[in-house]
Specification:
The protein contains 20 helices and 26 strands. The structure holds fructose -6-phosphate (F6R).
């Protein structure tokens, strides 16, 4: 799940390529590289680690070529060393690759037997030599790429640059995204439209199996069989894709603070605010005929889906089956023909989520995709798109996309209830009223930042942290633990508060903070009992709850984050803010990179 770029420019392209890679760094940042043609000769600059290392290398050894390719890597095969960094090269070409070439071992043996020598352990290098081998048989670059593509198995996107060909890049898409940008006498290729946004607002997306011969004149797109195809050129509104940090130190901080606005935007898509009703939603199945709903997602998007399970079961009286996509896709789950599956994904490119979507579609399920990136693979494959309008999320740890997913899923849950007659118009109006109050409440909750920062000082010294919640606060406890561990590398676990006594209570001691998420909901009293169990064993309690909750808990509380009073149905949308701020500040205090935590990538396009 790396980021790839290609530029056919009118002047030197190394700088613009690095700029585009910066916008793709969310896809991985283990190493980076650029290749250009210098008087027809292939030249590469590559560096371990983040892009700033590549920039330093380019400053010391500049490249002047007007055609080039670039890459930012999330390592799959081979360590993140310079040798394994892309672009990979064979004598006559260089290539950047995103994805996995599954049959690389067999191809490597086959090509080694022909006398080719490899410089790396990567699967990507095989994508170079497979084409080199075809060129050696006298084929043109175009014929060679087409023939080689037929030999490669897996999910990948590729861009090739050829020695001596200063007006030719060839890109291919098979399972990983690739967009083409149309400029004025210039052409661009990139993993997404965001990478290309400063160059052009005219973008087309390759479809599965497509490959494109790109010159400064334009793009000649072919399908898997080599037949010419047209892919619509779309205009992205100016500036819509550009993401800047503004006055914030990190994208993550900016994205946390954008939540009142983007949750509001998302809700406005689903709700008629004046009439306090839901706007009509084009369900791909008749909700009254459903026996259950399936939800599939990964990571934070899964936590949003798990919260939706509570809402759909409560409002629509429909059983919900939910699983992480990496399990779902392989466990041979029975699928209801004509049933409903909801997939949730910020990027819309997560490999396991995409595979699960294909799995249910092949078995007759209708699908709704709760997706943030509108042109993504999931968005395009799903029967009905339920967008989240979070805007580009650059921080690797998901924040605003999560609360927008919750907002969209809450609206869908109410909508399912309405369509099934399990809630009437009065209940709809009440729920919609509660839901549209969440942006304002989020703004209130964000004022707790100084308190969250103070708490972070204590959490930063902990070795382990436990998060507890019940009902819809249980998924949020899981999310709190995920945010803290991915950002600060502190070990954290989320637990259903009622499960505490079935094992984890053995962990309670005077060192481990226990963060209790306790909005005033139907299980509040039960959570208070669980807190007392912790207190009785000398545990350090951090309470996130409404103003009166601390008194009512009647236990010693080390830190209290006093949340605004609210009706509890949609509390997770609001309570997400303090857990995000806590994880963010803990990471910053500990000197960790809050936007780009180690080993992670924003868009997980490998399984
Ligand atoms: C955690 C995080 C990840 C993603 C997961 C799914 O902060 O961001 O767990 O939620 O990789 O990604 P999408 O939503 O793009 O499918």
């Amino acid at each position: 799940m790396c980021g790839i770029v290609g530029v056919l420019g009118r002047g030197p392209v190394a700088g613009p390529i690095v700029d585009a890679l910066k916008r793709l760094e969310y896809r991985g940042y283990d190493s980076a590289g650029v290749a250009t043609l210098e008087n027809g000769r292939l030249e590469r600059r590559r560096a371990e680690g983040k892009l700033k290392n590549l920039e330093a290398k380019l400053a010391a050894e500049p490249l002047a070529g007007a055609i080039g390719i670039g890459h930012t890597r999330w390592a799959t095969h081979g360590k993140p060393t310079v040798a394994n960094a892309h672009p990979h090269a064979s004598p006559r070409l260089a290539v950047v690759h995103n994805g996995i070439i599954e049959n690389f071992k067999a191809l490597r043996e086959e090509l080694a037997a022909k006398g080719y020598h490899f410089a790396t352990e990567t699967d990507s290098e095989i994508a170079a030599f497979a084409v080199e081998d075809e060129l050696a048989r006298g084929k043109t670059p175009e014929q060679a790429v087409h023939a080689a593509l037929g030999r490669l198995r897996g999910a990948f996107a590729l861009v090739y640059l050829f020695a001596g060909e200063d007006d030719l890049l060839i890109g291919a898409r098979q399972g990983a995204p690739l967009a083409i940008g149309y400029g004025d006498g210039e052409m661009f290729l990139g993993s997404d439209a965001l990478a290309l946004a400063p160059f052009t607002d005219r973008i087309s997306y390759l479809e599965e199996g497509d490959w494109a011969v790109v010159t400064r004149e334009g793009a000649d797109i072919r399908d898997r069989d080599g037949k010419r195809v047209k892919r619509r050129i779309q205009r992205s509104p100016p500036g819509s894709l550009l993401a800047e940090k503004g006055n914030y130190r990190h994208f993550m901080a900016k994205e946390i603070h954008e939540q009142p606005e983007v949750v509001g935007h998302t809700l406005a898509h689903y709700v008629d605010m004046a009439a306090m009703r839901l706007k009509p939603f084009a369900w791909p199945v008749d909700p009254t005929k459903l026996a259950r709903v399936t939800i599939v997602a990964c990571g934070t998007a899964y936590m949003a889906g798990l919260t939706a399970k509570y809402w759909i079961e409560r409002f629509a009286r429909l059983p919900v089956e939910i699983d992480v996509a990496s399990e779902y896709r392989y466990r041979e789950a029975p699928v209801d023909d004509g049933g409903l599956t909801i997939v949730v994904s910020q990027s819309g490119e997560t490999a396991d989520t995409l595979a699960s979507l294909r799995y249910v579609k092949e078995r007759g399920s209708k699908t709704v995709g709760v997706v943030n990136v509108p042109d993504s693979s999931v968005a395009r494959l799903t029967d009905v798109l339920a967008p989240t309008l979070a805007g580009p999320e650059i921080g690797v740890a998901s924040t605003k996309a999560f609360t927008c997913q919750l907002a969209a899923l809450a609206a869908l849950a109410i909508g399912l209830g309405k369509a099934r007659g399990t809630i009437d118009e009065a209940a709809e109006a009440t729920l919609v009223g509660e839901l549209i109050a969440t942006p304002g409440l989020l703004a209130e909750a964000l004022k707790l930042e100084p308190a969250a920062e103070k708490l972070a000082q204590a959490v930063a010294r902990a070795r382990d942290v436990l998060y507890l919640g019940r009902g819809t606060s249980y998924p949020l406890a899981l999310e709190g633990a995920l945010k803290l561990k991915e950002l600060s590398y502190i070990h954290a676990e989320g637990y259903a508060a009622g499960e505490l006594k079935h094992g984890p209570i053995a962990l309670i001691d005077e060192a481990m903070p226990v963060i209790v998420i306790a909005p005033r909901d139907a299980v509040f009293e039960k959570v208070v009992s669980n807190m007392q169990e912790v207190a009785a064993r000398g545990g350090r309690i951090v309470l996130i709850g409404e103003k009166r909750a601390a008194e009512e808990a009647a236990v010693t509380i080390e830190h209290f984050l006093a949340m605004p009073d609210m009706s509890a149905n949609f509390a997770p949308i609001v309570y997400a803010a303090p857990i995000q701020m806590l994880a963010y500040h803990t990471a910053v205090i500990m000197g960790k990179d809050a936007d780009q935590p180690r080993n992670l990538a924003k868009s997980v396009t490998v399984e």
